[in-house]
Amino acid sequence: MRSDRQRRRRTAKRAAVVALIALGVLLVAGVAAAVVFVQGLEREMRSEVARDPGLTQALTEKAPEEPFNILLLGSDARPSEEAARADTIIVARIDPEAKRIWMISIPRDTRVEIPDHGVNKINAATFYGGAALMIDTVEEFLGMPVHHYMEVDFNGFQDIVDAMGGIYVNVDVRIDDWRAASHTANRDARIIEPGYQLLDGERALVFMRSRDFPDADFTRMKHQQEFFKALASQSMRWSNALKLPGMAREFARNVTTDMGVGQIVSLAQAFRGIDESNVQTTTLPGEWRSPYVIADAEHKEYLVERVMAGEDIEDRPDAEEPARAPGDITVTVRNGGGIAGSAAMAAERLRARGFDIREVGNANQFVYEETLVVYRDDEEAAGMVARQLKTDRLVPSRGMYSFETDILVVVGSDWRTLVGADGSDR
Q1: Which of 308, 340, 368 is the endpoint of a domain?
Q2: The dihedral sign for the CA sequence 188, 191, 196, 200
Q3: Could you give the CA distance from residue 123 to residue 106 in angstroms, rounded to a whole number?
C-alpha cells in the first residue's frame, strides 16, 4: 500500500517537474518570440533611417533632452512618384514628466530657404533631400532643435486606425471631397457628416487629407491636430490591450522613425490617460501670396518662445486680425472661355463654400484660356477664392477690369481641366 503511494508521489513529482520544465520552455519561447517580434518591428521602422547617414547625423549631433522635440511628417506619395513632398509638417514638443504636448503645424506652402536649394515651399525639402534636409530646414526656419523624427505613410495610415477599431473624433463641418477619398474605391467615404463619431480608417484619412475648404490647408491642419489629439488620448486605453499586436504591426509597416520600440513604449506609458487639454495645438500664421504662404515672423518667434518655455499657447497680444471670412468677400463671376454653364458652376462652387456671389454672366469676349482671379487690393481674399477653383492665376486689377465686388473671377477654357466638366474635382 505504502509503496503504491510512494510510486504515485514519485510519479506526481516527475509530472510536476515535467510541467515546470514545459512551462519554463514555453516562457522562454514566449520571451524569445516577443523579443524577435519587437526586433522585427524595430528593424522595419528604422530601416529607412539606417540607410540614410545624413538623417542619423542630423539627429545624433544634438544631445537628447527632456522635454524633447520631434518632427512629425505625413507623406502622401502617388504611385508614380519616387520621392514625396511632405503633406503634413508638425513639430511637437513633448514633456513626459509634466504629461504635456505642444504641436506647431507648418503650412506645406510656407516660403522658406532650403539649405543648398534656395527659396521654395517647405514641403519641397523632403523631395530634394528626404527627412534629413527637412530637419535642417525646419530647425533653421523655427530656430528650435529637432531631437527625433517620425514619418507616417498616409496611404497605409488607414490600416493603423482600423487596427485600433477606429478613432472617435468631433467633426466640425460636413466634408464631401472626392480627391481626399481617391485612396479607396468606397465612394461613400468621401462624405463625412458633422458630429462626434467613430471614424474608420478610410474616413479618418479623408478627414486628415481634405483641403476642400475656403481656407484650404488651414482647416486641414486644424483637423489633423484634432485627430492627433484624439489619437494620443485613445490609443492607450485598456480596451485596446488585445489589439496591441495588430496595432504594432500596422504601425511598423507605415511609420519610419529613429526611435526604438522601447522609447516609444516608454512614451506611451508616460502618457497613458493624458487629458486632451494637455495637448495644445497651433498653426503657424501666415498670409497667402501665390504661390506661397508667407509666415508671420514675429508671431512665429512668439509661439516658439512659449512652446520651448513650456507655457500655454496663446495668440500674440498684438497679432493681426484673422483672415476675412468667405461670407465677407463679394464675388463677380464671368464666363470668359465660352464653355456653356462654366460661370454658373464656378459661382455655385464658391457659393457652397460661403462666398457672397453678387453677379454671374459673360465676359465681353470668349478669349480667356486661363481662369483668372482678379482683385483690387486684397490678395489674400483672392487667394481664398483661387484655391476653391484650383487655379493660381491671381491678377491685380490696376483699373484694367470693370467690376463692383471685391473679387472678379473670369472662367477660362481651362475650366474642365481645373475642376472637371461637371464642376466636381478631378
Answers
A1: 308
A2: positive
A3: 9
* Mean pLDDT score of the chain: 79
> What's the grid cell of residue 363?
465676359
> Is the torsion defined by CA of 282, 159, 195, 384 positive or negative?
positive
Cell triple for 323: 483672415
Q: Would you call 312 helix, strand, or coil by DSSP?
A: coil
Q: 131 near 55, Cβ under 8 Å?
A: yes
Q: How far is CA 105 from CA 71, 216, 228, 303, in A?
A: 10, 14, 12, 11
pLDDT digits (tens, 9 = 90+) for 353-370: 889 999 999 999 999 999
| CB burial readout 214-236, b (16+ within 10 A) else e | bbbbbbbbbbbbbbbbbbbbbbb
| 82 found inside a domain | yes
Give the C-alpha separation, 147 to 139, whole Å.
10
70 closest CA partner among 129, 150, 130, 125: 150
> 300 and 358: one domain?
no
Cα 69 from Cα 288, distance rounded (Å): 28
Going by their DSSP bridges, the two strands 292-295 and 286-289 should be labelled as antiparallel
Query: Crossing angle for the helix pair 244-254 and 2-50, nearest 10 degrees?
Result: 20
Contact by Cβ (8 Å): 74, 256: no
Please tell me the distance from the alpha carbon of residue 290 to that of residue 35, in angstroms, as a whole number: 52
Cell numbers at residue 420, please?
472637371
My answer on whether 8 and 95 are in the same domain is no
Q: Are residues 77 and 138 in the same domain?
A: yes
The pTM assigned to this predicted structure is 0.66
Region 12-35: mean pLDDT is 47
pLDDT range class, residue 260, cuts 50, 70, 90: confident
Domain containing 415 equals 326-419
DSSP-assigned beta bridge partners for residue 361: 334
As for how many domains the chain has, the answer is: 3
CATH of the domain at 400: 3.30.70.2390
Which three-class secondary structure state does DSSP give residue 273? coil
In this structure, are 159 and 230 located in the same domain? yes
Residue that is last in its domain, among 274, 308, 342: 308
Amino acid at 175: I
